[in-house]
Design brief:
Length: 76
């Protein structure tokens, strides 16, 4: 249900847990309906919360406070 990101902005995905927050990918979602594949270099059992933020291009690469989606990952 995400709308395309505004010009000059993009979405960033993060996983977080007791050990901190780790980036797992970025996307614009301008074509919609196309699956987005995120990749994590950490075990998501240790970082069970997935958060999607809106980021401004050229800004600090840390998670912004503009959270558009957040939830817990299911065990697989």
């Amino acid at each position: 249900g995400l709308l395309p990101s505004a010009p000059g902005h993009y979405y960033a995905a993060w996983v977080s847990g007791p050990r901190g927050t780790v980036p797992v990918g970025t996307f614009h979602w301008r074509k919609g309906g196309i699956p987005i594949e995120l990749w994590s270099g950490v075990d998501t059992q240790d970082y069970p919360r997935l958060t999607i933020t809106v980021q401004q291009e050229g800004a600090d690469p840390l998670p912004s406070d503009q959270v558009v989606m957040s939830g817990l990952l299911e065990d697989r």
